[in-house]
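We modelled the chain as a single entity of 152 amino acids. Its sequence is:
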Amino acid sequence: MTTPTLKARLRSDLTTAMKERDELRSATLRMALTAITNEEVAGKAARELSDDEVVTVLGREAKKRREAAEAFAGAGRAEQAEREEAEGRVLANYLPVPLTDDELQTMVSEAVKETGAEGPKAMGVVMKVLTPRVAGRADGSRVAAAVKSALS
């Protein structure tokens, strides 16, 4: 038996959420599936996304939720901020476990040794090696900051 794709799991969970009348999960999963579909039909030809590409789309959507929650909280709209955070938590269930700071530091150190990079000018070389390894598990700005501190 093959394992279901992430997209199939999202659809199945959406059906379950609808049956359970879970409005938050239903709305969030609908939004996620719409984002995936939009990504599939973008470009010259429609295509099926791989699980890695679906994780990338979900990561982007989760980041949007975090940023919106911060904006709403900053504007004193706690109710909307809480809703965005709740949607982010639903999406987090489908994303890989984020890297801890220690795990990220270890990966950065390995990439620096591997590339033999020295000094801030070599940051691009290290990022090129590191980015595919941390894909979906660490925010790009966090990775860049770790690489920058390791090279300085």
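As a brief sanity check on the tokenised model: The mean pLDDT is 89. The first helix runs from residue 6 to 19.
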